[in-house]
Amino acid sequence: MFLSRVAISDFRTFPIDFSLELTPGPGVTLIVGQNGLGKSTFFEALEWCLTGQVKRLSDLPTEGSKKADFLARRLPDGKEAAKYGVELTFQPQAAVKFARWREKDGTAFKATIDPSESDLISALKAPTWKEPILALGSYLRLTHFLSQAGEQRFAVQDSKDRWSALEAPAGTERLNRLRERLGNRGVTSAFNRRAKEAQDAINNAEQAVKNWDELIERRNHARRIAESGGAVSQAELLPQLEMLRVDIAGHFGDFQFTEPSSPEACIRQIATRLDGLRPSLAGRVEAAKSLEPAPRQWRQAMDDIAKGNAVQSARQTQVVDATMTIDRLQFQIAEEDGHLKQVDASLEEIARGRSRLTRIATARSSLEELLIRERALAERISLAEVELARVSATARNLFTLADDQRRLEREYASATDRSEAVRELQNLYTRFLRAEGDAKDADSKLSDIRLQTQGIDKEVQEIERDRLRHTQSLHDCDQRLQRLRFQATTIESCVASLASVITEEDTHCPLCSTEFAAGELKKLVNAAASTSNDGLSAAEAAIENVREAIRLVEERAAIVASKQLQRDRASKNAAAARATADALQATLRLHQFIASSPAGIAIENRVATLQAAAKMRLDELTSSLRGSISAAERDKTATDAEVNKRSAESTLHELKEELAALRISRQEYEAILEPASQIGDDTARLSSELAKLAESEGSLLTTQEARSKKLAALSVQLRAAVTTRQSLESELLSASHHASELQRLLDILRISWNKSGFKGDPSAEALQLGLDEIAERQKRLAEFEARNRTLLEGHSSWSKAEEFGNLQKQITETVQHLECSSEEGARPALDRALGAARAQAQQATDARLFRDQMIDKLGAEARQYANKVLAPLNSLNESFLRVFSCFSNLSVSMGAKTQQTSVKLEFVLRWLAGSAESGTAASIRHFLSEGQLSALSVSLLLSMSTAYRWSQWRALILDDPLQHNDVIHATSFIEVLRNLVRYQGYQVLLSTHDLELADFIRRKMEAAEVDCKTCQFLGTRQTGVKYKVT
């Protein structure tokens, strides 16, 4: 089925009467216009009509527009339209209309749908599709719609949202629903609550057993104490406790009783006080023992400090001596360096004098040569000027003769062109006669084929009725087989899982808690697990029979289609032949020679006359040109004259430039000789001056060499002195660091010594005195603890005699509560209650374990099935991406990540470099460009549309898919669309704001004989969008 008509009324920017007729078959419809004219609104109207919402607008925040209906058109007066809606018509089978309207009822809009959404799903759903379609919008957005909004496209959605959109067509929704039911929060809370109740029962039973044992132990202990004697009354106990407190305060510091009237509180306070003193004393002992090496370390550090001070003093003296030596050597080096600079200055002055004298001698000899060359160049320039005048006169005569001959040649060329035009006219007339004969032959063949194909349309209608009947039958059989498979798979999976955990000794069902005899429950579960459904084979056989009938119908349809194709081709050939003949005839009549001829003259007579006139004119011009020289000779003579002229001009110019250069050189030499006139022209005097300069230069060079050697020796001594001082300073710094470390060690030893309670510097005698004092205090502490224990035992003996009676009474009450005949039977009764509580807890644990195993098993099946589903999708997606040519070294694939109660669909990026590859599961928006994201979204839509054939409406609704892409990608994309339309029978609705791109798409589709219609949005007005359809 195909969409044949779209009617929009007052939806956003569209008027009340917008209607677009589409071709109900495979083809492309282009929606063209500038941004803001309503292209995206047109696609949103389709989405809203089919799904009940515009996903892009539904996901936007509604702050400030909660009371407004943003889908109703705003009228010229600013108010909302009272009613708006969209109506879609599908063909070519029996017309299916679906309309969605919203009409204002008071302050709110009321929705109406005709027919129901379930009827629309039944009409769109393919008969071969097995899965139930619960959310039509999810299916359409996955395989039909491509939104212009990037955030709505499948590639950039959240990983959970991607899998939610894919799981229904992929067939894993049923397994995931079972997993969610078993692992949802309510079921988990119930299991947790039951486990907590069972654990609380165990804890209560264990606490009851523990309390009973403690009660018996306390009763027996009280009995032994009461029978042992040695009791101390409260009146005797308080004075003794006060005496003990005073003795403790005298040795360890004063403290007071917080409850002086309570003997128990006083005893506990004394015990706490003594317990707090013992760790302190033990700590002091450990600290004192740790200080045993301190006296020896102290003495050693003091000796090392004295030695270090002596070394530092000696090194400081040596550093001062080395510094004085360095200063003396630096002064001598500076003095020698000054002398060398004076010698260098004298040598430079001598070099400048020698250079000046040499230039004077050279300038005198060169000036004489220049004067001779200048006179010779003047004579050559005079001769060159005479030659140039002669060559110029010859060139002017030749050019005048050439102009006359060129005029005759132009007239000859014009006559030749007219003769060729007449010959082409003759050829055109011959082609017209041939095309007229071909048209008559094609009409004759078309008549014969139409006689052979009479009645074929009626046969096509019969085939379509049989196909529809068999397709509906296949759909019914497939639905029945799917239900039987679902029931068999689900029941057998659950029963098999039960059979794996139930043993021969189990007597209670883990699901309903029904009691059975030993072994009977196991037999029932095994029998249920092995039972097969006999209806599956019958349903599968019925489907095979229907498919065979459909195959026979398709064979008949292929034969009829072949005949139709033969008839259509013959019709097209006849029309093309007639069009060719008509076009050639029109071309003949519009030709300039035929159109300008007098009325009544036949075409063939007019052609003969034109040929004779053209031949006569050519003969006249040929005789005129026969006596002249050839164009090549004429051009050669003129070119030679022009070359001679240019050569003479070039020679004259070069001679003048050479003369100017000689005059400049003469002026330079004269400028050199003018200051040297005081020396005179005597060459002997110049030689004498040069000899004096050479003598002075030799003396200065000898002095320079001697002082350079002395300076090098002083530099060597200076480097040795600097190295010595650096070594001494390094040793001095090391000694200083060592002294600082020793001082820090002394400070640490003194701090540790003082913290341990010792005063002064560390010594062995002070350490021994401290240890003796601590031992004496520990001895006193032990005596006070023994006195406190004696008082405690005496008071316990006095109080246990009364406690024994109370404990015996509690035991008797517990035995009566447990309904036991004697005290010996109470403990077994408590053990039995504890065992029952543990058994119930184990049952709860086993049930939860069985639930978790079922979740894991369903998750493994869902993961395995998901990978099987994604494998062909990844293969298709990779093929489309290769065609789009925008992923040179990168591949993108989809992978399912299964969690406890959900599945995520993630993209895996792989970078290819030679034979190596690296991959990561990452957010593709961080790695891909906008163009690559757009190409990936289109590729995924095409992959899922071709993989999931759930709908009879094979269509693609693409809102400006090429807005982020270049020409190469656009061309590849159009080729893919053209093949989908030609070979897969797709109906494509595509928008673009680029008029040139739209024209390019139209021409590509028409070249492949693909139906292509263009709807151009021209502008907006008060009544809505203005458009035209071509």
UniProtKB/TrEMBL annotation:
Protein name, entry field: OmpA domain protein
Domain Rad50/SbcC-type AAA: 6-225
Entry's Gene Ontology molecular function annotations: ATP hydrolysis activity
UniProt superkingdom: Bacteria
Key word tRNA-binding present: no
A matching Pfam family: AAA_23
InterPro entries: P-loop_NTPase, Rad50/SbcC_AAA
Keywords noted in UniProt: Coiled coil
Keyword Signal annotated: no
A Gene Ontology biological process term: double-strand break repair
Coiled-coil residue windows: 188-215, 536-587, 638-672
Gene3D superfamilies: P-loop containing nucleotide triphosphate hydrolases (3.40.50.300)
